[in-house]
Automatic annotation (TrEMBL):
This is L-aspartate oxidase. It comes from Ammoniphilus resinae. Residues 436-526 form the Fumarate reductase/succinate dehydrogenase flavoprotein-like C-terminal domain. Belongs to the FAD-dependent oxidoreductase 2 family. NadB subfamily. One of its GO terms (molecular function) is L-aspartate oxidase activity.
Length: 537
């Protein structure tokens, strides 16, 4: 049983800070929303690590938007809906494709330098896109360039107060409203920050899996916090595994961008045979879920732990110019993209679901908003279209800022709130690390790319056994992270067991077909009401 708060507290005992708007997270969603919100309100930006550390920083491929006459809003809309496998919100997709282009130009005004060919913005194509509409920066370092530009603007903005190395433990609610957040400071003190609005931009949950393209910070904190605060959690059975992460002894599971396939790379099995024609007419540029499962099938058939990505037929100049970061990382491990096939395997990459929001980023809890990967706007449906995530963050970040502007301040601060349950012994950091690794391995084996009833039931049994840790005394942020991961793992496994079909980022060996008649609907989690289903509209 997940308790309402991870810690026992008395409000009168906490050090207090007041602000107008709290934003939790410093990826593109947090930084961009902070800048737009600071146009009318004072903002406190909470960063778990340094300002520059987020999932965005590692985004390679780029940002999708319609900016040429050859392309069209209608095509981008159609591509997004097809990739989403029948579960995208049409309204949310319309917002994304129509407002995305202006968001890209705003990033440029904030100082982001996208690559150009002559005087025109350079565009590439990625899987399931019908046109070249992906803007990129420094070849394959798009996220790092966006974070560089936005973080500089944030640091220079006098209305934004940055709290680095502060961990948001829990959202504080009263009478159905979010009133602020309890934070762990770098010195281990607990601080309560009060605000008229709180924005979750805390990123995804890739660290649920042993093999992930996500950095250490992606532990599902925002989703777990929102769940405990009473917000609805939606579609978390849909987890995108990126088909191609580096799989080589001694190397991290480094992302090999989909743009490499967009520029002509092909996939070969361990025997050197190109295989995607067996699985989809789109070949290497089929939707990500199809490519990832095809790779796993080839690995299983040939008893291998990887397949190869081959771009050796392209020129050395193109490879070095277009993929400088990937080229250099591979070179560190003795792999030369110009002459070598690169060993790759799927890795957890992106969670399509998250905190349910409306078209203005509002959650089911008043004064609480969610933006970026932590949210579920409905844009991605069951399978995110490549490079739509960065677009989503800026489009809905701007909308959240506009909605917050309309909020009235809270007149009465919270004075006497408290929470306490029977806590057992303290949870040690060494114990936390062991439990975290155990959870990650369990998720790979039982709630991974291919699932079935037996494995999912086994996973839930193990996860529910580990819920005893919720009754322990917690002190450091590693313990809080682990319990957030445990919460997200349980939510994902429950939804995956309930959905008896295969769709997008959710594949069941025992129910391999998509079933629109029964399962064209969403699964919602509520801490107060349990699991419920929402019909697709």
């Amino acid at each position: 049983m997940v308790p309402r708060y991870l810690i026992d507290f008395k409000m009168q005992d906490l050090e207090k800070l007041n602000t107008e708007v709290i934003i939790i997270g410093s990826g593109i969603a947090g930084l961009y929303t902070a800048l737009k919100t600071a146009e009318h309100s004072d903002v406190t930006l909470i960063c778990k690590e340094g300002l520059l550390e987020s999932n965005t920083r590692y985004a390679q491929g780029g940002i999708a938007a319609v900016i040429t006459e050859k392309d069209s809003i209608a095509l981008h809309r159609q591509d997004t809906l097809i990739a989403g496998a029948g579960l995208c919100s049409h309204e949310a997709v319309d917002v994304l494709v129509n407002e995305g282009p202006e968001g890209v130009y705003e990033l440029i005004r904030y100082g982001t330098v996208f690559d150009k060919e002559g005087n025109q913005l350079a565009l590439t194509k990625e899987g399931a896109h019908s046109e070249r509409r992906i803007l990129h920066a420094n070849g394959d370092s798009t996220g790092a360039e966006i974070v560089r530009a936005l973080s500089r603007e944030v640091r220079e903005n006098p209305r934004i107060h940055i709290l680095e190395h502060h961990f948001a433990i829990d959202l504080v609610t009263k009478d159905g409203e979010c009133r602020g957040v309890i934070v762990l400071t770098p010195l281990g003190k607990r601080l309560y920050i009060d605000a008229k609005a709180t924005v979750l931009a805390a990123g995804g949950a890739g660290q649920l899996y042993r093999y992930t393209t996500n950095p250490e910070v992606a532990t599902g904190d925002g989703i777990a916090m929102a769940y405990r605060a009473g917000a609805l959690i939606k579609d978390v059975e849909f987890i995108q595994f990126h088909p191609t992460s580096l799989c080589y002894p001694g190397a991290p599971r480094f992302l090999i961008s989909e743009a490499v396939r967009g520029e002509g790379a092909v996939l070969r099995n361990i025997n050197g045979e190109r295989f995607m024609e067996k699985y989809h007419p789109g070949l290497e540029l089929a939707p990500r879920d199809i490519v990832a499962r095809a790779i796993v099938s080839e690995m299983e058939q040939n008893e291998s732990t990887f397949v190869y990505l081959d771009i050796t037929h392209e020129s050395e100049d193109l490879i070095k110019h277009r993929f400088p970061t990937i080229y250099q990382v591979c070179l560190q491990y003795g792999l030369n993209m110009v002459t070598d096939w690169i060993p790759v395997a799927p890795a957890a990459h992106y969670m399509m679901g998250g905190v349910k929001t409306g078209l203005w980023g509002e959650t089911s809890v008043a004064r609480l908003f969610a933006c970026g990967e932590v949210s579920c706007t409905g844009v991605h449906g069951a399978n995110r279209l490549a490079s739509n995530s960065l677009s989503e963050a800026i489009v809905f970040g701007k909308r959240i800022a506009q909605r917050i502007k309309q909020l009235t301040p809270i007149k009465q601060p919270i004075e006497s709130l408290s929470f306490s349950i029977m806590r057992e012994k303290e949870m040690k950091e060494e114990e936390t690390l062991v439990e975290r690794l155990k959870l990650q391995k369990l998720m790979v084996r039982q709630v991974g790319l291919k699932r079935d009833k037996m494995r999912l039931e086994k996973a839930l049994k193990e996860l529910e056994k580990d819920s005893k840790h919720f009754r322990k005394l917690l002190k450091g942020h590693k313990e809080f992270e682990y319990l957030n991961m445990l919460t997200c793992a349980m939510l994902s496994a429950k939804a995956a067991l309930l959905r008896e079909e295969s769709r997008g980022g959710h594949y069941r060996d025992d129910f391999p077909e998509r079933d629109d008649e029964i399962w064209r609907k969403h699964i919602l989690h509520s801490i107060e009401e349990g699991i419920k289903e929402e019909m697709f509209v």
